[in-house]
Amino acid sequence: VIVAFRTCLCSALLTLFILTPIEAALNPDSPTILITGSNRGLGLEFARQYAATGWNVIATCRNPRAADALQSLASEYNQVAIEELDVTSDSDVRLVAAAYRGQPIDVLLNNAGIYGTLEKQTLGTFDFEELKRVFDVNTIGALRVSEAFLDNVAASNQKKIVSLGGGMGTMTIGQMFGGHYFMKMSKAAHLSAMGTMQKDVDNTGIIVTMISPGRVDTQLMRDSGWTGKSISAEKSASLVIARIAALEPEMKGRLVMYNGAIMPW
């Protein structure tokens, strides 16, 4: 019995140690960004580049324990805080929002997204459970997170909510080719949701904008089946960061390309 108790106690302590977030020292004199899906690809690169310029970074992902590169980044920059957050989980979002109540967040970056399995969103082989999964992350997730941290953004100096959008969610590009139904639908709904949110927060000074990062060499782009030219996550992140820094009120509710062009949707 004693051995079993010790085993359980050790296991519990180990679990507690693993789940304890890295202690971060957010600088009250520095701007703050919260990024979803920070464990790899563009999300990780955003976290890296913002941290390197002195920003406080609240880097969220579903499984911090498996996010080795993100853990390494947090050990290099003490103003990087890692938080466990699945954008499809109401409880996760509520817990993190409660932990940062009163913390101004200058930029809320909805980066988390999935493409979904191509075969399951092809005419003739639709899997509507896959449709729900894609929508839950790409559309509902961004809406859930944006609503939860609205007060944090409103309390900041920069007041920006940015979602990664793309041409596939527009009528102009999305209708140019077949297939990819669920990704197109989720991104179109995402654009609509963020555009509508902008109308609701117009009197707060908050800018809600969608930015297209381009065709980036990430897992999401590989999941799309794209085999053409792409840009690196490092290059795309730097361009998107420049766009975020240059956001003006006239870009409210718009879809902005990584090169600064406005895309009609």
Automatic annotation (TrEMBL):
Database matches in SUPFAM superfamilies: NAD(P)-binding Rossmann-fold domains
GO molecular function: oxidoreductase activity, acting on the CH-OH group of donors, NAD or NADP as acceptor
Pfam families hit by this protein: adh_short
Identification of the protein by name: Short-chain dehydrogenase/reductase SDR
Protein's organism: marine metagenome
